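> forwarded from #structure-qc
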């Protein structure tokens, strides 16, 4: 009887850790999406043309959270982005936050999210000076919610600070207002601070408000750990996000890649894994940035191979900014709805594994798939893609080249639904 009891403890413990999930975050300035000016027109920045570019980028990154700047304040335009760039080609799980605006502004922030993993618990405006700064409260759809349990919450603070030189004081006011709001509203939570900050240096007062705020407990950190004089400095090429163009098309800024304007910063709780969410080290990157195109366009010579060619073309044509991306590890089991949504109806394998991982997959429908193995630092160690028909499949993966340790194995179907498991190699 005691042996059976111990076996049950082991199995229950394994099940509770084997379903850790990852959240992929993407932040992007869309450059006057749905808003026409005397320089960004229907000829050089038509939003229906941009839909195809955004769709290509989103389908490549597969974000669970997609925060954007410079989208039209029109609800119909925001809905159009959802319907024609996100929920397309068999994807139907994205939703958008309600549109709030206290400023009579033509461009706003917006957040879209994967409803199979996340729910929206609230949306408020943190500050209104010059532009609104939005705070979106998301909750993770943990399996424990169905039985009255708790889950992890994530606050996404999305900001578009005042642009150009000589506006440092205005950016500082916007930053301080935002930090003061966080300090007085639920500060002991998981926070991401994301957006187009228009900062030229870490010495700018606005950035110092974020990383050296008077209350040390709510200061933000840079996941990329790239602090310094970003402007026109080749040492920071890998985190430069503007401009994708070296020439002038009338709408996009010119001059080539020489500024780090776009950021995702993380709170101490995420950095130190204090509230069930943890940054996956090494997962922060600028999509389409290879570090070899300082002061030139991202598609100039030498050939940029950091992303597929169609993604590079979309990044170049859609905006003069590059998006930034990172991943979080959620220390919660997957919910029943998530498991049922995936075409991977069941996933079986022995754990721990030595050299040969033997998978038994039960598919509820035919689909393309990706199977990826990551280190706990977010580095991809093995990847396989292909097609699987409906039914049961046996698959063997040779892991003899992997060092012993703990990994995350991720299963992604053709619609972008994903499941993750912990994998122990011995």
């Amino acid at each position: 009887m005691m042996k059976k009891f111990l076996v049950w403890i082991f199995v229950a413990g394994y099940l509770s850790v084997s379903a850790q999930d990852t959240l992929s975050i993407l932040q992007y300035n869309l450059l006057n999406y749905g808003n026409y000016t005397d320089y960004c027109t229907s000829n050089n920045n038509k939003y229906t043309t941009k839909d195809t570019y955004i769709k290509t980028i989103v389908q490549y990154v597969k974000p669970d959270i997609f925060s954007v700047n410079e989208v039209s304040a029109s609800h119909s335009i925001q809905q159009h982005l959802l319907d024609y760039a996100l929920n397309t080609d068999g994807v139907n799980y994205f939703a958008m936050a309600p549109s709030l605006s206290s400023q009579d502004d033509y461009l706003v922030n917006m957040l879209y999210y994967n409803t199979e993993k996340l729910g929206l618990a609230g949306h408020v405006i943190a500050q209104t000076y010059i532009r609104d700064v939005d705070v979106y409260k998301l909750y993770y759809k943990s399996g424990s919610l169905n039985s009255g349990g708790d889950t992890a919450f994530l606050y996404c603070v999305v900001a578009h600070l005042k642009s150009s030189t000589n506006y440092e004081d205005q950016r500082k006011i916007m930053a301080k207002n935002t930090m003061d709001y966080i300090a007085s509203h639920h500060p002991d939570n998981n926070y991401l601070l994301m957006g187009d900050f228009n900062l030229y240096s870490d010495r700018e007062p606005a950035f110092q408000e974020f990383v050296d705020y008077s209350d040390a407990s709510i200061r933000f950190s840079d996941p990329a750990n790239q602090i310094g004089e970003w402007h026109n400095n080749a040492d920071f090429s890998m985190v430069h996000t503007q401009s994708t163009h070296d020439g002038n098309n009338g709408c996009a800024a010119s001059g080539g890649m020489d500024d780090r304007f776009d950021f995702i910063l993380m709170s101490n709780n995420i950095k130190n894994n204090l509230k069930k969410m943890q940054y996956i080290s090494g997962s922060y990157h600028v999509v389409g940035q290879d570090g070899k195109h300082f002061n030139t366009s991202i598609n100039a010579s030498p050939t940029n191979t950091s992303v597929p060619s169609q993604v590079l073309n979309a990044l170049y044509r859609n905006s003069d900014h590059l998006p930034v991306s990172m991943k979080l590890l959620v220390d919660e089991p997957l919910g029943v709805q998530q498991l049922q949504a995936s075409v991977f109806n069941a996933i079986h394998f022995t754990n721990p594994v030595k050299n040969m991982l033997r998978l038994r997959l039960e598919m509820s429908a035919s689909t393309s798939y990706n199977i990826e193995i990551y280190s706990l630092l977010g580095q991809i160690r093995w990847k396989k893609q292909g097609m699987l028909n409906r039914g049961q499949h046996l698959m063997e993966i040779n892991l003899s080249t992997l060092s012993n340790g703990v990994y995350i194995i991720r299963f992604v179907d053709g619609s972008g639904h994903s499941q993750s498991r912990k994998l122990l190699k011995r």
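QC bot note: The radius of gyration is 22 Å. The first strand starts at residue 21 and ends at 33.
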